Amino acid sequence: MSPPSVMKSESKFMTEKGIFHPKAKWEEENLEEYELRVNKFNVHGCWDWKENKVIVYEWPSKIHETIIGELTYQILRQFDAIHSTPAHMSSMGSVRTHADNTGHESDVTFRPPKPTDEPWPNVVVEVAYSESQTDVLSKVQDFWLKNHSRVHDMIVVKIDYVAPGEMPTRMQAWHFCVSDRTRRNADIVARTHFEFGTHDQAGNPLNTLPGTCVININLDCFHHDTFSRITIPQNQVPDPIQLDFLLLRNCFL
Hints:
Layout: H1 4-17, H2 31-41, E1 46-50, E2 53-58, H3 62-77, E3 90-93, E4 96-99, E5 102-105, E6 108-111, E7 123-128, H4 133-144, E8 153-159, E9 171-177, E10 192-195, E11 214-217, H5 219-222, E12 241-244, H6 245-249
């Protein structure tokens, strides 16, 4: 293993430059060693773990982190009125979850007070920049929303990769909810899917109107499986919780 000073330099290089330094060998670590290293150097990227192999597929970038920060702000500000009450909503940040001999690290999660035997968050946000659309959507069906005992709602944002220094132009968002599963083990069809960038896949300009790029998540979904003694405060919090992705796009334009 590299000395700590070298490892820190390598991880900083990978995070800022988006390049995997050959000496770091992050993909060759087992899960426990990998988690120790990302904790030590605060390099929380995106990774999968399957069959005792860690696969790193995306490191944080300015675009990636900006989207996460804006969505977190939009969600939590709508819960401000109940911030100090038993029904408060917590942002758990990047959470590691293991199941079925696989493991994933989410970008940001939201969870109400829940019993300790209900470990999964209720709402998960995944942002894909360098990660492919196919890969991030596969995890929705095969891991996060695999059954009703896991995550309840999932937001996926895909930003098509651009060269350093350029502004992203194609942006998409999906909303999935386990309530929409039609039969056991069936894939869930996205409740909402839209493009909110300035151009589509073919490079054609998009004329997106205000109010057309919105995801609505029911308050019951955020508070799913909360303690029975907690009353969901519909009269104090917007229902549904609304996310405006044109506001998100304005972070880049």
